[in-house]
Amino acid sequence: MPSAAMLIAGTSTAEAIELTHINAQVAPICDLNRHWFEQIQVESNEAWELFRMFNSTASVAEKVTALQDWAKGVTARSANDATYAIETARSPGTIELNLFARKIIDVDESGLTCRHATLQSAQRTASAKR
């Protein structure tokens, strides 16, 4: 039974199922983007903190210490970023493959039917109908 939100939006049940499927596939990409945007924010904040510390002190020794601390932080964050990138490198490709293997809508004599098929089986079905 369609939900009130689908009825208000004018979305059919089949369209809502398809959108839910696509949203489930796109969510990991959103998580990847969110992670990298957070990392950009962290790096920006660290750079501004280094700039503030560098300009607030007159001592060369304190400036060198601030630079060393910043370099250690950058190295640690870079190692974490590399690990994250390696762990998630396959995710976008898997998502794209899942989107191509999603449900295919086909019309037959009895009306609109929806069945799960891969691209190859859809091509075989189309060839058999000819």
Describe this protein's structure:
Residues 105-119 have low confidence and may be disordered. This protein has a two-stranded antiparallel sheet. It contains 5 helices and 2 strands, in the order H-H-H-H-E-E-H. Strand 1 and strand 2 (111-115) form a beta hairpin. Helix 2 runs antiparallel to helix 3 and helix 2 (13-56) packs antiparallel against helix 4 (91-100). The chain has one domain. It starts with a helix and ends with a helix. It is elongated, with a radius of gyration of 26 Å. It is mainly alpha-helical.
Strand adjacency order, main sheet = 1-2
Could you tell me how far the N terminus lies from the C terminus, measured between alpha carbons in angstroms?
Answer: 36 Å
Number of helical elements: 5
Largest sheet: 2 strands, antiparallel
- Average per-residue pLDDT, rounded, comes to 74
| Number of beta strands | 2
List the helices and strands in order. HHHHEEH
What's the number of domains? 1
Structural class: mainly alpha
Quaternary structure classification: single chain
Helix content: over 70%
Shape: elongated
Low-confidence stretches: 105-119
The proportion of strand residues reads 5-15%
The Cα radius of gyration reads 26 Å
Features:
130 residues, mainly alpha, 2 strands, elongated
List the helices and strands and how they pair.
Elements: H1 4-9, H2 13-56, H3 60-88, H4 91-100, E1 104-108, E2 111-115, H5 119-129
Antiparallel strand pairs: 1-2
Task: Give a quick rundown of the structure.
By secondary structure, the chain is mainly α. It contains five helices and two strands; from the N terminus they run ααααββα. 0% of the residues are buried.
